[in-house]
Write a structure and sequence with these properties.
Metal_resist, Spy/CpxP family protein refolding chaperone, about 150 residues, Four Helix Bundle (Hemerythrin (Met), subunit A), about 90% helix
């Protein structure tokens, strides 16, 4: 009976860790998606890009899509390592702390590369287009409902 309780406890801890990791990852990633969606809508519909600008934007977006996907996979792997560490330690021990730190590094890297992506797109714009783009970035990042 004691083994059954231990197994149930382990399963519960792993479940909570997985849900927590998914929630944290989704919360961070989903906050960026609306910003990107608004910016992409503005870029493709609201700034009257010329053919050269469109081509440059497509290249920038293609490169970033590959990198973003790799970082999202890294975040998922970090969540799995966190779940394993929680399962091993059953508390906030050194392996859990290291897994959290590793996850934060990947999240930070995704945020940095997203900003680099935004600035790369901005560099393609004329000053008038850049002013509209900047306003959209500020609005997207400071909206209360996100």
């Amino acid at each position: 009976m004691n083994d059954l309780r231990r197994l149930i406890l382990i399963v519960a801890i792993v479940f909570v860790a997985a849900v927590s990791g998914a929630f944290v990852g989704r919360a961070l990633i989903s906050r960026q998606a609306p910003v990107e969606s608004e910016l992409h809508a503005l870029l493709h519909r609201g700034l009257d890009l010329d053919a050269r600008q469109h081509a440059r934007m497509e290249a920038i977006e293609s490169r970033f899509a590959v990198r973003k996907h790799a970082l999202e996979l890294e975040l998922r792997a970090d969540n799995a390592r966190l779940a394993e560490a929680i399962e091993r330690e059953h508390g906030y021990g050194p392996a859990v702390a290291a897994a959290v730190d590793r996850s934060h590094q990947a999240m930070g890297q995704l945020q940095k590369e997203t900003l680099e992506h935004i600035f790369a797109m901005r560099a393609v714009l004329t000053p008038e287009q850049a002013a509209k783009f900047d306003a959209a970035v500020v609005k997207a990042l400071t909206a209360k409902d996100r």
